[in-house]
Amino acid sequence: MNTLAAFYQNLGLALSLMVIATFLLAGMIKGVIGLGLPTIAMGLLGLAMAPSQAAALLIIPATLTNVWQLAFGGHLLKLVKRLWPMLLAIFIGTAAGTVWIGMVDSHWVVRGLGAALLLYALSGLLLPTLRIGAGSEHWLAPLCGLVTGVITSATGVFVIPAVPYLQALGLSRDELVQALGLSFTVSTLALAAGLAWRGALGGGELSASLLALIPAVLGMLLGQWLRQRISAVLFKRVFFIGLGVLGGHLLISG
Asked: Which of 82, 105, 192, 217 is buried most deeply by CB count within 10 Å?
């Protein structure tokens, strides 16, 4: 508890309130469209703190909300059998990226985060839904996993190219939501291992991350309620536009 109080005392009141508001918003977006919590958290917190510090804060909220997402749907075993090459490659790519690159607290990491967010937003807004043939999965799955892992280790964002790849597999809606939860869980655990290896995930960071779980879960419950009352397509479009603006700002300002 002392480490938790010290962590948020060092952040200050304004930044602590920003953390709470960020995870409430990120959880709400995840509740509506099934993704976006780490992406929004890294993007907004990256405006005010070091990327490694922002990444440490999202570990517990991202892990538990992703496990919650992957636990329901009834397709877990089938998805693990199909996606294990990509999931294994995510771990390998994150480990290699942690050793070779790492999430050092520098301007280029912030710009890399902005580029990843902007690329993801543009792909969501402009690219049509692709379809991947079964014959391509054996080499494309590990390639996407490796690239996703390297980007994860450097920026804390693990949606590119994993999300477009999963969307191109022709999964049903329930299967896709569960597959995203599975991919994000593996990515979050790999990121946590990398941060711990670099000494950026100690007791204070984990305690602060545990507290951030509360607004994240509240936001996710609110998002699930909203999902029944608004157009998911319109919400997703607004989400991608906002994410693109945020990514562009980070890319330019560093």
From this structure: 192
